[in-house]
Design goal:
Number of strands: 16
Order of helices and strands: HEEEEEEEHHEHHEHEHEHEEHEEEHHHHH
Helix content: 25-40%
Distance between the termini: 121 Å
Low-confidence stretches: none
Radius of gyration: 31 Å
Strand order of the largest sheet: 1-13-12-16-14-15
Number of domains: 2
Largest sheet: 6 strands, mixed
CATH architecture of the largest domain: 3-Layer(aba) Sandwich
């Protein structure tokens, strides 16, 4: 039986390592709700992996809901749109959800209808309900213009990911990632339960673009209602060569490379793309956003976020406009600050703590956790590594984290890279099992950032050297040309007396003869 036949049959494989943290999915049975429009929305220009797009608006300009605020000019740029109608207040630096309190250029909008649930007046974007009779390149360009980026990870531009596989025409397996393995997070679970039919429509669009041999919707087996709804939607739609595959609960099975291993048995190296193996993975929320964009002309302006934690009076899953203040969102859910306030963006394993909640929800914000006094306790006092090897056994990327940690703290960047730093997916398994409470993931993230900074510095130095060399070459060329002009001028001057003497000689002879 071939590998692809095993996939059709639903055979499963396993990845190395992994852990089993408490699930704590307290909001799994809470339906998606909506919140009133805020007074202001703050939209970072860059909410994806890549460069920000070019700004189209200016302060004082009125914008409609769904109207583009930026325009992409290159492949890795994704535009942003106004979630609600309003007036642009500013285009300036503002805080974003980042552990360092980083600031980036943002568009701030004063909403027309604060306190209400409507969008206000809407901008009409094109839609393609008859997409199967439309050129694939047109659909891909439309997905980009609608601002679609990955909603389950780092926000990689969806059209770029689709385009590379579509051009190669080698897609064997399309995997729709509904694993949602991280503790606390339930937004994808609720989406699959409540909007399965639209997800299947999104899968059809991806199948049209990629033409895969087979499609697998992967869902952890702790989500029986979502699995039942997806199976119903698949059955009623008659979508071909598509099945829901229940995978065992194991963290981090939702990481793309690990999920590929579970479904296909193939381990993708860190320096290779899954598309080279004929495999494409997309998050279930991204697929839903693609369906909205193509069928309704609805850009990515809202997303579902899990809001949870014992510091909140109530918890739930909420569909909110991008740019909504995290602080305002927590206050809506009855936030009471504990003695040591803490807010986590993302899950407890891969998320990060923010020091100021006055930052917006962005495209990649899937969960906001407001822990109580003894919930998700802060890291215990760190002690020396005892080289027990637990981190190595738990690592799904086959790394030896304690060795990698030693290189990181010693600032041995080259050694850290050789030890597999780039293979680290920052899942947090090593930190979770470490008996010495070593902040392994924090060290690895810091080391990656340091290497990135060093590379930027090195590139700038090399660029400066190149400019200096080019300048010296230009000056030398100018000096050479100047010397040539000078030599030519001197030669011309020297030749004038000789020419004059030569021309005067015959006249003198003629006079003396007479």
């Amino acid at each position: 039986m071939s590998r692809w036949d095993k996939i059709r049959k639903g055979s499963l494989f396993s990845f190395k390592g992994g852990v089993f943290p408490p699930e704590n999915k307290f909001t799994a049975d809470m339906a998606i709700e909506h919140v009133p429009a805020p007074e202001y929305l703050t939209l970072p220009l860059k909410q994806h992996s890549g460069a920000p797009a070019e700004v189209l608006v200016k302060p004082g300009q009125h914008v409609l809901a769904d109207e583009p605020l930026t325009s992409p000019k290159s492949a890795m740029q994704v535009p942003i749109h106004a979630p609600l109608s309003g007036t642009v207040v500013s285009v300036a630096m503002s805080g974003i959800p980042h552990p360092s309190g980083y600031m980036e250029p943002c568009v701030k909008i004063r909403c027309d209808v604060p306190g209400e649930s409507g969008y206000g007046e809407c901008y009409v974007n094109p839609s393609y309900p008859d997409y199967q009779n439309t050129d694939r390149e047109t659909i891909l360009n439309h997905i980009n213009r609608m601002g679609i980026a990955g909603l389950g990870g780092a926000g990689f531009p969806t059209d770029v990911k689709l385009r590379s596989s579509a051009r190669a025409e080698n897609c064997q397996v399309l995997i729709i990632n509904g694993a949602e393995c991280e503790p606390y997070i339930t937004c994808d679970d609720r989406l699959m339960r409540e909007r399965a039919d639209r997800i299947i429509e999104g899968i059809r669009i991806l199948q049209y673009i990629l033409n895969p041999v087979y499609t697998v919707v992967a869902v952890e087996n702790n989500k029986p209602e979502a699995i039942r709804e997806l199976n119903r939607a698949i059955s009623s739609s008659g979508i071909p060569e598509t099945r829901v595959t229940e995978i065992p609960v194991k963290y981090p099975s939702g990481a793309a490379r690990n999920l590929i291993t579970v479904i296909t048995g193939i381990e993708i190296p860190y320096n290779a793309r899954s598309t080279a193996y004929g495999i494409v993975v997309h998050n279930v929320s991204t697929v839903y956003a693609v369906a909205d964009a193509v069928l309704r002309g609805k850009p990515l302006t809202h997303r579902i976020v899990t809001v949870t934690g014992s510091a909140l009076k109530k918890q739930g899953n909420v569909e909110i406009p991008l740019g909504y203040s995290i602080k305002e969102l927590m206050n809506h859910f009855g936030y009471t600050a504990p003695s040591v306030p803490r807010v986590i963006v993302g899950g407890p394993m891969m998320g990060f703590t923010i020091h100021d909640a006055n930052v917006p929800v962005i495209k990649t914000s899937n969960c906001i956790i407001a822990p109580g006094e003894h919930e998700i306790e802060r890291t215990k006092p760190q002690v020396n590594c005892i080289r027990c090897g637990r981190c190595a056994r738990a690592c799904p990327s086959r790394l030896i984290p304690y060795e990698l940690y030693a290189f990181c703290v010693a600032n041995e960047h080259e050694a850290a890279l050789k030890c597999g730093l780039k293979s680290c997916i920052e899942c947090g398994c090593c930190s979770f099992v470490c008996p010495s409470a070593i902040r392994l993931i924090a060290e690895f993230r810091q080391e990656k950032a340091q290497i990135k900074i060093e590379k930027i510095k090195k590139d700038r130095i090399n660029a400066a050297k190149e400019r200096f060399v080019l300048k010296q070459q230009r000056l030398a060329e100018e000096e050479r040309l100047r010397a040539e002009r000078k030599a030519a001028a001197l030669a011309k001057i020297k030749s004038k007396p000789a020419a004059a003497a030569a021309s005067a000689l015959p006249v003198t002879v003629a006079l003396s003869t007479s």
